[in-house]
Amino acid sequence: MNPERGDTDLLAQHDYQAAYIFDPENGETPGRPSKKRRVSKQTKGASSTTEDSILGFVPLLNGAEKPDFVKLRAQLYRESWGKVENRIQDALRESNSVTLDQVATFVGEAKEAADDKIPSAFIITGSNLASQNLLFEQLSESLQAASKSKFVRLRSSEAVSLRAMLKKIIREVTDANSDSAGENLQMTNGQDIRRQYLDYDLEALHAYIKTDPCEHIFVAFEDSEGFESGLLCDLIPLFNAWRSRVPFTLLFGVATSTELLQARLLKSVCQQIYGAQFDAVQSGSILETVFKIAVAAADVPVRIAGPLLRSMLERQQDQVAGIQSFVSSLKYAYMCHFYANALSPILAAPDHGAPALQAEHVEALQYSSSFQIALEKVIAESDVSDVDDLSAFFVQQVANLATDCGSRAAAQRQTWVSCAVRGLEVLRAVSTGSTNFPQLVIEIYRHGDEELRLGPSSEADHAALLTRLTELTTELTLLQKEAESKGISLHSKYTGHNTTVRTTVIRQRVHLSKDTMALSEEDKQMTRIVDDTIAAITANLDVVPPNEVFLAESWLYDSKAPSRDVFVPRPRVVFERSLARPSDYLACECCQESHDGVQPTLPTTSILYQMYLETGSLINVADLWTAFHAAVSKEEEDERKVLMLFYRALAELRALGFVKGSKRKADHVAKLKWL
Amino acid sequence: MPPRKAQNQSPIVVNSQSPRKRSRSNANHETESETPSKRRRDALGADDITNRENADHQHESMTNGFAEPSPAEKTPTTTPRKRGRPPKPRPNGDTPTPRASDPRTPSKRKNKDGEDEDATPRRQAGADRSARRKSARALIESVVGNDDSDAEPDGIAGAIYDSSEEEAAGEDGDKTDATPSKDTPEKRGRKKRDKSPTPPRDLPSHELYFLHNKPGKPKTSNNTLSALSLLTHDEYFTLLREQTDRHQSQIEDLEAFHAKSFPQWTFELSQGFSICLYGYGSKRPLLQRLAKQLYQETPPGKTQRIVIVNGYAQTTTMRDILSTLGLALNVRIPAGPPPNMMQVLLASLASAPDTILAILVNSIDGAPIRKATHQATLAQLASHPQIRLIASADTPDFSLLWDVGLRSSFNFAFHDATTFRPFTVELDVVDDVHELLGRKARRINGREGVSFVLKSLPQNARNLFQLLVGEVLIAMEEEGVGGGEDVGVEYRMIYNKAVEEFICSSEMAFRTLLKEFHDHQIITSRKDAIGTELLSVPFGKEELEAILEDLMS
């Protein structure tokens, strides 16, 4: 038997199975343990450290990239993203810590205070399901760490009936410690308990608690809105009744408000609850924190360009996507940058002991737009008039620029980031409307910003700015003192107090005119100081667009398309296009020229789809068949064959959800999609 | 819903306008006096005026298109009434470009009266029509009247508006010469056609939806497929085998193109993303290829197990999937409710931290695993760091399967993988089509399918099936029914016969054999009115005979 044949046989055998193990080497008996073990040993023998792995990076530059650089890119990706990811994880953990502490304290106190009521914490999480998940995970961790307790998470989708929920709670509590203790004995213990009782009998839990006492059993209703109110009304009194024997504590994740939840419960049930409300951090503020530390911070390895960022943030709002999806998008941007950009390792190459750049790198460099901008600048500055051989001169300049470009680019990037981030900070300071604005600005340039990992500025321009600003502030203080001693208040011409609006009525029409009060000598001086301060600051605010900075390609990621394609698919558009214009995908000769009407050479489903587009809401299959036959018979003579094609196309349309059967008329189908 | 109406109208206007206009000006070559033109305008009036609000811009440009040097004498005929709106062309000018005229002018009102007097003696239908027209006009006048009061043309725009109207009117005025009797019915006939035009092209899809879903009887012909003998499974597969796709090489190229992305996808997988491939065409071969690639590229230091799940297979259940996953990890998971199985699976994954489990799901939006609970289980699997999930989705609506929570635990990276491959395995074409037409219930691939299934079963299973088919055929003979669906044979009776013929020795074994058939959907069972269990084979008589022949040979 030749291998190809065997392969297809194997496939045919598996095609109708629900699932099978893909194992082309020993396929005849999928999942035979003995053979697998041998395979796994073999692979283990050939193991190497994961640090070296190249993560499936492929050589770029038309395949000419050396393995060293491929490895370097993979390594850089791991390092850069690892750094940012750790930072994000820390921030996320921290963001909920306040809520977690509050809940823990409440739980500790409530045990005594609650009397005959059941302690319950209502946590207002906001509408985002995805971020709830993280919160409850953290709650579970922190509460179990704080005291000896068990944590059971319930979701409304799993909670079909009272019995199912009780089963789940009992199972999770009795099984939970099997992996924490890791002892078989305990596990069998738990199973024994369940064997004695019905598996939804809380007596089992009681018996279990006796052998393994714990302070709390937390039951978390993650999406309390999703639970049937009847179910909750049954459960809560039940837990309360058992509280003397089993220490239940309830946690409710509330997306809307506790009032709404209360309105859904019976009054008698509400009276049994001893509750407190906690507000989880809203996703907006978490997003801001993450944005600051992972995108805006001065030391992030890859900078994300504006348009892409905007689309990422818009997605957060439009699609109510969680913070996780923002992090995913960010990660994807990093992945794209290092996976597909051959210039990405240039900046870091010297530090990582990489070999000199390849000729292909240099060539790629020369085509980058920022390089060309730099080259134009060099040529414009140099005197070309007395150069004999222009092309040689040109080549020389290119070579000059290309040598040691990594460190130079790194320096320029440093400068740009420092200027840009500081500029943004100044603008933010403006928007706060603080009274000692110049002081804030000085602070920004002198000390930087802790949160944004921005150190003191080292630029020469900034030093000048600082001295100028300090001068101006001292001048201002002097002036203020002087004014104080004279007992007058200082105004500049911008203050607005010194203009009055005069109203005159001439011939039944109202004329408004503005009058400016005369400025005193001090006021004029004040005005000058204000003007100078503004001028000094604005002179430093301007930065060139990032993509014009020398070799910005190596640290700036700005393509919007991959992120959009990967995270916001538009399947309908894709389907519409592939069916309406198959030649876009197939690139075939036969379907390209545009005749009037339907071309018989198109894939048959396409033909049928185009007819489908012209139909109304109810389709007569007999007529459809006639039309199809007329169109296809130009290519295919045999009627039965055409019918076979028709069958296939119709079945596909059905599978794609375009049509469904209709009973309104014989041999009719109903149209379902208007793409 | 007024906005819908308005939007609906405009494209129709765009289409119908130019031909109507053209023909009208043709007609004008024949017509003569002033009166006819007035009456004609009236007949048109209501409809055209409704359009004008929407088509304001259009008719402006249209009339400009008609522009010719205007004869000056026509202009002064109007008595400018309250406002200096578009007054000049009124007396005979506006017939060909009715939209360009002001419907509220005095001359028009006079016209209306004249028309009514004219119309009453004619036919009942005519009266009806004019009544309807009147009410329509009343409506329109109130609307247009409001319009007029605040939209007074002045300045340059107004001047342009006026002059363009003048020009158009002047031109038309020159040509007005139609006889009354001929003209009116002709116009009416044309108007009717305008009302039910062939669906205008390039409507946005939501507009098309409303256009198609207008209340009323569907207007489709009464043709049926009765003349056509439908395909059987046999014929279908014979024809399919002969068929060669003219795009075969392009399809191969397309798949090779997608295959170039494999390293990228592997990278994405390794970074915790799941992959979802969507687009038209079967992606099964592509996933197969990807599985091969993954198999060869097991990351060093890891063990990789690859499991392929067929979401399209009718018999797929979560239990099957989970137990296969368990097998891949060398764990035999006791069958139970999926959450329990899940726990065992995750525990065994945790005990083998070097193992990567790659799950390739064909048709994640297939009917058997479409349920929310199944998707939740898959999402839970996908979010596990040791599990990599690659899924293909066949329908355009797959993204509706997941809410925000599921979506974030799946963490999908979507890729367009349009393949144009026919769905050979995923679909049961003949049955699907017949079901669509309401002809037959579903079953597996007919005679071929049965023999395929039986080939993989032991001899006594084959014997049992032969027995069953024989009994069903006898029952059919007795009852004289053509269709096999309604004929059943008693479970007890078959069991006894099977024991007699030494096919099986216990009921347990008998049940096991039947279960196998049932899983492959080659038998059905139901209870009759008094609770006797009946077994049946879901095939027609001819097919049963053919199957029996196959079995005997």
Automatic annotation (TrEMBL), chain A:
Pfam family, one: WHD_ORC
CDD domains in alphabetical order: Orc3
Biological-process GO terms, alphabetical: DNA replication initiation
Residues annotated as domain Origin recognition complex subunit 3 N-terminal: 48-344
Chain segments annotated as transmembrane: none
InterPro entries, sorted: ORC3, ORC3_N, ORC_WH_C
Occurrences of domain Origin recognition complex subunit 3 winged helix C-terminal (ranges): 572-639
Tree of life domain: Eukaryota
Residue span of region Disordered: 22-47
One GO CC term on file: nuclear pre-replicative complex
Gene Ontology terms, MF aspect: DNA replication origin binding
The entry's keywords: DNA replication, DNA-binding, Nucleus
Cell compartments where the protein resides: Nucleus
Location (main, coarse): nucleus
PANTHER family: ORIGIN RECOGNITION COMPLEX SUBUNIT 3
Family named by the database record: Belongs to the ORC3 family.
Full protein name: Origin recognition complex subunit-like protein
UniProtKB/TrEMBL annotation, chain B:
GO biological process, one term: DNA replication
Domain Origin recognition complex subunit 2 winged-helix, first and last residues per copy: 483-543
Stretches with biased composition (Basic and acidic residues): 27-37, 49-60, 119-130
Residue ranges, annotated region (Disordered): 1-221
UniProt entry tagged with the keyword Nucleus: yes
Biased composition (Polar residues): 1-18
Domain of life: Eukaryota
UniProt keyword Nucleus, yes or no: yes
InterPro entries to which the protein is assigned, alphabetical: ORC2, RecA-like_ORC2, WHD_ORC2
Domain Origin recognition complex subunit 2 RecA-like: 251-417
Pfam families xrefs: RecA-like_ORC2 (PF04084), WHD_ORC2 (PF24882)
A GO CC term assigned to this protein in UniProt: nuclear origin of replication recognition complex
GO molecular function: DNA replication origin binding
Keywords: DNA replication, Nucleus
Protein location: Nucleus
Subunit structure: Component of the origin recognition complex (ORC).
Family: Belongs to the ORC2 family.
Function summary: Component of the origin recognition complex (ORC) that binds origins of replication. DNA-binding is ATP-dependent. ORC is required to assemble the pre-replication complex necessary to initiate DNA replication.
Protein name: Origin recognition complex subunit 2
The species this protein was found in: Emericellopsis cladophorae
